[in-house]
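To whoever is covering the structure queue this week,

Two jobs came back overnight. Logging them here so there's a record in the thread.

Job A:
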Amino acid sequence: MRFAFGHEWHSRKAQFRTDAAALASALADPQTRILPLWRGKPHLGAQALCWSGASDPILAYAKQPFLYLGEHEGRNIFAADISSWEPDALDRAALAMFTDTSIQIHPTAPKGAYFGELRLAMMQIPAVEAALAATARALFNWHRTHRFCAACCEKTQSTAAGWERVCPACAAKHFPRTDPVVIMLVTHGNKLLLGRSHGWPERMYSALAGFVEPGETLETAVAREVWEETGIQVDHIRYMASQPWPFPNSLMFGCIAQAQGTALTLDDELEDARWLSREEVLLAWTGQHDHVLPARNGSIAHYMIGRWLAGHV
């Protein structure tokens, strides 16, 4: 069992990021691969990413320097944000949905290639490609939302092959933002506490989660978030695993905790929460529960629940 986005490629080659000659040479190499992304959606083919070469006309829509991701299997890897392209008959309502099932096809794309939601493809494409696409998605979102200097408000410029932004007015440097999030299994004997947020797909339940606040340890954040959302006090908090989650820029710290009681008092963040026995969780896991669907396959929540079901935690 695995979850998405945690696989590492051969080398990030961070030393290349400020080496203009090395980057130019890499882009001139016919073996180099470039991943186009459109508004966070990677270019997809048949159960794999759809790569471009430097001369691909689809890359003409890139309005900022390419992002350098590093090297894998002897090839240099870049990503390009082509969000300035405007498809015909764009379904804007679909783009705003929790799960965007729409696809966009560029007129110059190879047959069968399309821009699609990464959450839907994350377990269908190779693990290393999912990690590359997730990294590019998170970085491009950071560039989109941090275009101005926090020190003097001037417009910043992308540098270091997409891994920094610099202010030409005050010389301040800005680095990619990653938000720490705790996501936790809360247990009580043979039961597991699952919740659902407003706007989630019908019947979908998952582990509780929340952002780590300044000055908090992971354990403190777990206890606070569970108490705030459900009124449950927890102890015996343990770390399980972590997952980069580029929706938009999070790092999920998976934990497990024991509840001191089972009486629930929900706050406004949750639409519902419920205790499920191991048998009920297994029914949900296999799609046989009448009221609960499991967390999405590929998410750390799905992984942790599977570990709990198997008796490994």
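Job B:
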Amino acid sequence: MHHRNPEVIALAHLVERTPGSVAFKLANFASFDPTLRARGIKGAANAGRLDQKVWNEFYSNWTELAFESELRLANKKQTAVEELIEESELLQFPVGRTKEQLVKVRINQAFFRKAVISAYNGTCCITGLKQNELLVAGHIRPWGVDEANRINPSNGIAINYLHDRAFENGLITITPDFHIRVSPILLKQQDDTVKKYFHKYDGSLMHLPSRFLPDPQFLKYHNDERFRA
């Protein structure tokens, strides 16, 4: 969040502010971030009521305000909002919708991926792999199960494709205290490949994000409803 960050500098240019003032505003918002608080990072001490209002509004309505923020960013860049995303960043989306609805879905999916991967600093939460092309932003509560939290970064984890597939199918999970559990279905297998890619992670602490810590209630849902114990 410092003033030398290239993204902070670029945003400052767009909104006609100094990088220092943008970084200062980010520090104000950081004072409300529960993940940063849990890590002992307090953010700015002089955040105001308006900062709190903006934070609360955004945090309680990801679907609408993530899209609105991207629209405003596109407007500042004098481009179409579709130009802010790349095909490689998009997840599958439902068919049979209007063009405007599809654009919104695509923008929100791209926002979710960027927010989650960034929160984990481009690191797989299971293995520690740092290769962006091999990572996905996986949902803890699936897209089709919890519409209100589809875009909530606290409902996401950065995870590699192999373990994402295992997570989706309940072969691995993450406990509410952020430890990895491997299903007995895999633990019973003595194949060297299964041991290498799964057994050794059982009981390990996941790689935690720098912000948007996974919501323990979402993790509890995955443990109770999806994990094949």
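Note for Job B: The beta strands are 135-139, 156-160, 172-174, 180-182.

Please reply-all if you pick these up so we don't duplicate work.
Q.
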